[in-house]
Target: ATP phosphoribosyltransferase regulatory subunit
Amino acid sequence: MMPGPMGAAARAEAARLSALFESVGAQAVDTSILQPADVLLDLYGEDIRARAYVTADPLRGEMMLRPDFTVPVVRAHMEEGGDPARYTYAGEVFRRQETDPDRPIEFLQVGFELFGGDPAEADAEVFATIAGALSGLDLRPSTGDIGILMAAVRGLQTSDARKGALLRHIWRPRRFRALLDRYSARTPLPAHKKTLLAAADPFKEAGPQVGVRSRAEVADRISTLREDADTRPLSEEETALIDMILDLRETAPNVLSALRDIAVDMPAITEAVSGLRRRLDALSARGVDVDALPFEGSFGRTTLEYYDGFVFGFQHASRADLPPVATGGRYDALTRVLGQGRSVAAVGGVVRPELVVRIREGRA
Model:
């Protein structure tokens, strides 16, 4: 019988990783396996239900089996911790698997999180530390920067409502693309919506009221749709620049050069591009070969929705079907949400010990 993701070898690897992170000053912490569902629902909306196990407690209300460590660690730090700080943790997380029965629903996660300090230096330290922990394995690194795309969206010449919608769906690439095409008039408004919005009284031909929304709520929604329909489409130039950012797929120095060119026509990304340059300098100072480091404009957009800057991952070089061995990134905005307005620079990453064992033993 093959050892599962919670076997002795995986736990031994988790202990090795934890010791390594502690050796660079990280404080070992733990969190409850059961987490309040309302916090995660506020962060991610109802989408999180498709990825997490939900239960009900008669006193505490709706609870979730821990889908990851980052959110509870950030909550604890913002309530009790001081900056700067660094943490490590190891334990089980739980994810529902509705499409792939071979993927585990319970697995170990070991993490390394930094709070405070210079963002570029902290990004580089987390990446280099995790890369060092995985040295000797046949892994392919990937990097990206969601902050560049977010800065580009915020700089668009369009309504705040449209920018807000695009920002909410950055982590849903298909929905983001559909909105971008609609806002740029690449996709026409469906005929039935045109008819609805053109009607002097949209309720005149309506049937009996069904569902939980009141007539006033429906009227407000129609008014919002009318305002959006009257908004001038995004220019072809702006849309093309967003496409250029999303299509970037090169070594990091070449991407930096391309982004500098894009920033000439889209000044809103200038600061984020400067942040990328500082990060590459910091990575190089830590011995990372940045000349060969891959960068993808869309990388990290299908992870949990708290990364808002640097993102990275390590994948088996020849087994793209396997989950990433390690992932991580910057999540400054999450600290502001959980810190009730107080924020701190924060970056971290997690490693899957059982995948490390499988690859090391040649079972991947």
About this structure: The chain has a mean pLDDT of 88.
